[in-house]
Design brief:
- It is a single chain.
- By secondary structure, the chain is mainly alpha-helical.
- It folds into two domains: about 80 residues, Orthogonal Bundle (DNA polymerase, domain 1), CATH 1.10.150; about 180 residues, Intergrase catalytic core (hpI Integrase, Chain A).
- The chain is built from 13 helices and two strands, in the order H-H-H-H-H-H-H-E-E-H-H-H-H-H-H.
- Strands 1-2 form a two-stranded antiparallel ribbon.
- Helix 1 packs antiparallel against helix 2, helix 2 packs across helix 4 and helix 10 packs across helix 12.
- The protein starts with a helix and ends with a helix.
- Belongs to the 'phage' integrase family.
- Keywords: DNA integration, DNA recombination, DNA-binding, Plasmid.
- This is Tyrosine-type recombinase/integrase.
- Pfam families: Phage_int_SAM_1, Phage_integrase.
Length: about 300
């Protein structure tokens, strides 16, 4: 598998399907791992079904890769060979007839407990809403709390939020145009009036200092805030508040979905909010809510209450 093929495949996923940066990086990493395997074992085209099964064993037994990692690398490889076969019929996919599964255990997402959420929201110093729109830009801590609040009420992926441009937010900051997986656009609403006002002031300040095409959220040196930088901020905040396991952007997304379902929001509305292509992806949050219900019933223990 040549470097040119590897690069061309990744570029095609970006250009033809609008695949995001993180997914493209994962594709490249998966293909590099397989390329090393072919070099070590001196494999060459045409590859066979046995070569793929040997690679599966290599990932599982030698690299001790996790089931989710194995599954992802096999899916990437299968997509690559299908793409290559489509371009060159003389190189059929070695995945024909292969049934290699890593048997990924389905894990429930871990939302953040309500008490922890309360502690996080109360951790801000000076409320941003008290700052006039013409004053200095919010501190990193204030911007972090603003982003956290937006994650909680919108269920956005952190990449969707950090990729926002000033022009993507409405004048009243009540809604925004978000680009999700596959570069699909959707409208996301900001339902809380107080948060809307804080967000509006922040957006107004950014609009008076930058063009509408500029990134909405900035890092400490005035460039676009990246997802990884925000994750580091959450780790610092977690350490300061003594929160373990530490906060992550995706846990806020899980919390948004779980809280909405617990409050009776229709699952299809939650699906639209989260930008899930398949309802089955959203249904896992119903299971989370059922788990919360069971825990609440066990804590209440009605029969024991009646005995006392």
């Amino acid at each position: 598998m040549s470097h040119l093929d590897h690069t061309a495949f990744v570029n095609s996923r970006r250009d033809e399907r609008g695949v995001g940066h993180h997914t493209l990086r994962a594709y490249a990493q998966d293909l590099r791992t397989f390329a090393r395997f072919t070099q070590i074992h001196r494999l060459s085209d045409p590859l066979s079904k046995d070569d793929i099964l040997a690679y599966h064993r290599h990932l599982r037994d030698e690299l001790k890769a996790k089931p989710a990692t194995i599954e992802r690398r096999l899916v990437t490889l299968k997509s690559y060979f299908a793409w290559r076969a489509d371009r060159n019929s003389a190189l059929p996919s070695p995945f024909t007839g292969v049934r290699a599964s890593a048997r990924i255990p389905r894990r429930l997402p871990r939302p953040i407990e309500r008490e922890t959420l309360k502690a996080v929201l109360e951790s801000e110093a000076e409320p941003t809403s008290a700052r006039p729109a013409h004053s200095a830009i919010a501190t990193d801590q204030e911007a972090t709390i603003l982003i956290i609040k937006l994650l909680i009420v919108t269920g956005l992926r952190i990449s969707e939020l950090t990729n926002l441009k000033i022009r993507d937010v409405s004048t009243d900051a009540a809604q925004m145009i978000v680009r999700g997986k596959g570069n699909k656009e959707r409208i996301v609403f900001v339902p809380n009036a107080e948060l809307q006002e804080v967000f509006r002031q922040y957006c107004t300040f950014r609009a008076t200092h930058s063009s509408r095409k500029s990134p909405l959220f900035l890092n400490a040196v005035g460039r676009r805030l990246r997802s990884q930088t925000f994750r580091k901020r959450l780790r610092v905040l977690s350490d300061r508040l003594g929160i373990a396991p530490h906060l992550t952007p995706h846990r806020f997304r899980h919390s948004a979905a779980t809280l909405l379902i617990e409050e009776g929001t229709d699952i299809r509305m939650v699906q639209a909010l989260l930008g899930h292509a398949n309802l089955r992806t959203t249904e896992i949050y119903v299971r989370v809510s059922n788990t919360a219900l069971r825990s609440a019933l066990e804590r209440a223990d009605i029969l024991n209450v009646q005995r006392n």
